[in-house]
């Protein structure tokens, strides 16, 4: 692990600030002063910042109700990010578990636990993800059957895995997929001749969006496993 990354996460300060204190000689690792920010260290090392021992935070698991208009990134020079919505002392250590498009709303999980996020998002684990889609046109029975059987996406080889499709109203459906292809739900519905007007994620695996969370609100989960 890079020293500047460790100091940023352990001291809950921006990476740029961590680099400054390292260069100023305020950081010691196992009793040795280190001034090179990119030095790789063992996360179990004893790290002192200005003569005070600092350690990495424990695992953090956060559920966010993502609003439209923010990007699923830790930082972005042009747009507000989902982490800008998280007022947490160890925000610098967090990353987004998967992504939602800028205009897509709903459940977004955020953590500092890389193994947990990998298990949720790795294609080989086939974790189901459920979305509420508002469509431009009513979904025909033929289109529903195509989605349930798997469809051919533009530029892809083979069919998608079968989706679970529930018709809620003439132009609103609940769809569950177990893959994570780029813009998959929108592309699947385009493949059957329709268009998604609005998309909202309700669930990822065992985690369902808390109905009491308003857009932009978040809560820390008691466990992530």
UniProtKB/TrEMBL annotation:
Protein name: Pseudouridine synthase
Catalytic reactions on record: uridine(516) in 16S rRNA = pseudouridine(516) in 16S rRNA
GO cellular component: cytosol
Keyword terms of this UniProt record: Isomerase, RNA-binding
Record-annotated RNA-binding S4 domain positions: 1-59
UniProt similarity note: Belongs to the pseudouridine synthase RsuA family.
Source organism superkingdom: Bacteria
Protein EC: 5.4.99.-
PROSITE patterns: PSI_RSU, S4
């Amino acid at each position: 692990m890079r020293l500047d990354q460790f100091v940023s996460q352990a001291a809950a300060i921006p990476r740029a600030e961590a680099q400054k204190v390292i260069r100023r000689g305020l950081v010691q690792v196992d009793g040795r002063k280190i001034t090179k920010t990119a030095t790789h260290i063992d996360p179990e090392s004893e790290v002192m910042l200005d003569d005070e021992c600092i350690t990495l935070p424990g695992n953090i698991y956060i559920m966010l109700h993502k609003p439209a208009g923010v990007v699923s990134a830790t930082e972005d020079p042009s747009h507000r990010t989902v982490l800008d919505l998280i007022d947490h002392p160890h925000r610098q250590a967090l990353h987004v578990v998967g992504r939602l498009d800028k205009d897509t709303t709903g459940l977004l999980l955020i953590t500092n636990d890389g193994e947990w996020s990998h298990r949720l998002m790795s294609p080989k684990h086939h974790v189901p993800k459920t979305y509420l889609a508002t469509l431009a046109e009513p979904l025909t029975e033929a289109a529903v059957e195509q989605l349930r059987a798997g469809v051919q996406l533009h530029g892809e080889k083979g069919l998608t895995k079968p989706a679970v499709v529930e018709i809620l109203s003439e132009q609103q459906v609940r769809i569950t997929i177990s893959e994570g292809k780029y813009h998959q739900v929108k592309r699947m519905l385009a493949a059957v001749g329709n268009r998604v007007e609005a998309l909202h994620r309700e669930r990822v695996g065992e985690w369902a969006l808390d109905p009491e969370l308003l857009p932009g609100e978040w809560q820390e989960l008691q466990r992530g496993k």
